[in-house]
Design a protein that fits this description.
single chain, 218 residues, mainly alpha, three-stranded antiparallel β-sheet, 7 helices, 3 strands, ubiquitin protein ligase activity
């Protein structure tokens, strides 16, 4: 994603090398799944390996889609205002897929362990998987969702600047340094792009200009 954000309209050698690596990572896990399924009989550990490879494929596909969005945005005549939303939804979809795979792996490995040769090592692996790949992912995803929802809710409570105000100001957004064609007005009377301000609210609630509270707390 950071590579796409630095794209300026020319595909450099760095971009080509990264895309080549992504293509390789996209193909190898699929090939590995086919080979492993042909060589070994299906069991719990093979299921874990296959699921890990599927997660890798989805992660790389998500990264390539986001990169394509950044590239198309650079070459587009008009900037995509909802680009940040698209990136968020793609990342969220990838995270949801990872979480669902982790839940399925947990259920299957627990069932296989209880119906097979139970041992302490297997129980320890399942417990660690349940904590790090299921519980922690669910907690992180929920916290990110609440943070984003809170930022959007508070941002929507701000007034849009009028055309007359923008003409009198004749300035740039101090976050992205791009001209203010549309802007939100904070309670401390500073002007920012709505998208820039939303990204800023993910980090902190202080105004980038004067460090006053941008909005009253919920």
């Amino acid at each position: 994603m950071s590579l796409g954000a630095t794209y300026t309209g020319v595909v450099s050698g760095k971009h080509l090398r990264t895309l080549a690596v992504c293509a390789l990572i996209l193909v190898l896990p699929g090939y590995m799944i086919i080979v492993l399924c042909q060589m070994f009989s299906f069991d719990a550990w093979l299921f874990v390996i296959i699921s890990s490879n599927l997660v890798t494929i989805v992660q790389v596909m998500g990264s390539l889609i986001i990169y394509a969005l950044f590239v198309s945005n650079v070459h587009s005549e008009s900037q995509v205002n909802d680009l940040d939303d698209y990136v968020y939804y793609i990342n969220a979809g990838s995270k949801v897929f990872e979480f669902l795979v982790a839940v399925v792996v947990l259920g299957y490995t627990a069932w296989a362990t209880l119906n097979g040769d139970w041992n302490y090592i297997g129980a320890m692996v399942i417990s660690m998987h349940a904590y790090f790949n299921v519980y922690k992912r669910a907690q992180e995803g929920w916290n990110n969702f609440l943070l984003r929802r809170s930022a959007v809710k508070r941002l929507n409570s701000l007034q849009w600047a009028t055309e007359e105000q923008l003409q009198q100001l004749n300035d740039v957004c101090c976050i992205c340094y791009e001209p203010l064609d549309r802007a939100k007005v904070t309670k401390c009377s500073h002007y920012f792009h709505s998208l820039c301000l939303r990204k800023w609210l993910y980090v902190q609630d202080k105004c980038p200009m004067c460090h006053a509270d941008i909005l009253p707390q919920d």
